[in-house]
Input
Amino acid sequence: MPTKNSKICNESNDEGVPKSKVHIILEIIEYVPDSIVRRTIIKNRNGKISAVAFAKGEKFCETTALYDTYVQVIDGEAQVTILGKDVDIKLGEGTIIPVNTVHCFKANHEFKMITTIIKHSETTKSSAAKKVTL
Output
């Protein structure tokens, strides 16, 4: 959950940023006091990439990740709690939050991150479950 006085702002619709145009990732999303700002970069039926900016002191906790989620800090430093263990992620570092994992983001300092979610297709799920024999 966001902190008591915070708000989550979505800065874009589901179309994402313009395709085939160069952008500076740090500039497509801004910090807003007492807020968590999210902007979709690209979204389709197979997944989503978003930029997220946390103002200092903000917190966002979810019960579980629906899919494996890759998180990379692009400005500042984040604290992520995964299965009850705090992980500090510095500029340029990333981590994978496994599917069905309880997690929480905390902004002890303001930070920006990129999140990448790739949904599991039925083909991928069934292929992974098949035993390969040579």
User: Anything to note?
Assistant: The chain is about 5% helix and 45% strand. Residues 123-134 have pLDDT under 50 and may be disordered. The beta strands are 7-10, 35-44, 47-54, 59-62, 69-82, 85-90, 94-97, 103-106, 111-118.
